[in-house]
Protein: Ribosomal protein L11 methyltransferase
Amino acid sequence: VPDWLKITAVTERESATRIFEALDMLGALAVTVESAEDNLDCDEFIPGPPKWRRQAVSGLFDGDTDSASMIAAVHQIASPDTHITTTRVPDRDWVLNSQQAFQPLQIAENLRICPVWYPPQTFDGQTILIKPGLAFGTGKHPSTALCLERLATLDLTDTTVLDWGCGSGILAVAALKFGASKALGVDIDHRALAASRELAVQNLVYDRLVVCRPEEVPYDFRCQLIIANLLARTLTDLAPTLGGHLTDDGKLLVSGILEDQAFDVISAFGSGYAFDTVSRDGWVMIIATRQ
Structure:
């Protein structure tokens, strides 16, 4: 087909699931849900339907689909005053388009991130090769970039690292690239664990990375550096656990925190640390050094 038809209905949360199911039943090739609110802040990860009060539910159909009949069908499911729009989406080489959209990312003078399809180039530093995809953490988000920039300044020789909430594995792999002797990546999502393993293989550090679920972390595991790029509420809950795995001279890098949440996270870790913070675009990384 020359293009695709995108039908979007903006609705209250209570009706979003019905519209989602209706678009699916009408033969949508894909259905997505996005926030229709200005405030995108969400400080929890709970499996299930999104919690945004107003949601934009979109279905993607073949370009020759009768849009008028689709809109009429959605109106039968939703309220008559539901705002529905149609958009023509040009067909394209989606693989090539996504590859062109992700170019090499210079994190620091001695660290860059490159997609695996990018032609090799001489670089006097560490290069992390990635396949941008499912798991969170390609280095573009400020919370990830702040962690990577700090790792690039540390002497990690013979250091054991714990990456809690490892996602794509990019932070653990970066630590290993900068000299850490071994790293433990922890995540609740089996897809993140698989992505971390794959990233370690791509970057030739697979023999020094172990991944597991939180309940599988040995009780007596101790390390000199802990990295946790998570949400503020999760970090406050995890503070005692993370502290229990840190050596007496250890350091924590905790990120994924909005500026107005930093005080609560610092308070959760308590008085046994010296704290420093780095901010960017409304996000904060806390460096906590045990004292």
